[in-house]
Amino acid sequence: MIALTAFIESVGLLGPGLNNWPEGADVLAGRSAYVPARTAIPAPASLPSAERRRTGAGVKLALAVGLEAATASGRDAASLATVFAASGGDGQNCHVICETLASDDRALSPTRFHNSVHNAPAGYWSIATRAMAPSNVLSAYDGSFAAGLLESVCQVAVDGVPTLLIAFDTDYPAPMREVRPIPDAFGVALVLAPAAGANTLARIDVQLTDAPATVLAAAGLEALRLGNPAARALPLLAALAGEQRPGVVLDYLQDTQLQVDITLSKRSGEGMP
Known about the structure:
The chain is built from 9 helices and 8 strands. By secondary structure, it is α+β, with helices and mostly antiparallel strands. An 8-stranded mixed beta sheet has the order 3-2-4-5-1-6-8-7. The longest helix is centred in the N-terminal third of the chain and has 17 residues, at 57-73.
């Protein structure tokens, strides 16, 4: 595979002990200690009140990190093409649907149903931002972040338009947690552009590889990386935060990983050609 290039302009981040990108960057770069804490997902103030009441954790998480990244990029969120990547849907909503279908009263709420489809966060994003730009939604199990990044970089390279990647996964309640043990929610968003600009954080060159995935030295962060599919992004985020890595390898398919070579911009403290 020929390497594909894109330029990262901004990041949105929310996960256990990582409340936003500025705080998370300090932790990932080793400037602050990592203190695990339950992910606190804010209510989506950008949605009308009726839609806000209907949203679950997955939608709230996707909107939170997506809006953080879009705002930090200085771009109009409505103008950005989007790629949504998640290994599954809203685990809590799925749990309630299963309980309903297993009960004597199997009448299912229409809201529960429409929140169960995989593209629900993309729909709520269009409502929240009034976006009319193209949007893709995908799932690749534990390789969903890498799949989303690859799709986003392809769109940037082929279409030549800025693209917002939003990757997220939420926890599952028992008994589903026994077979899908995701302990907490994690979300990340990246605005990628086809050319360098004033807000560029880094240039990335992406290609497939058979090299093993990059692991994190900090035990707590490595446990987080392995514990949530969206958190497979952490090695890339650590490099963007200033950790000295010329490149990282991200989990993707069983025998194929995604290599991301990184050149930090002067904004990140390094020179970029």
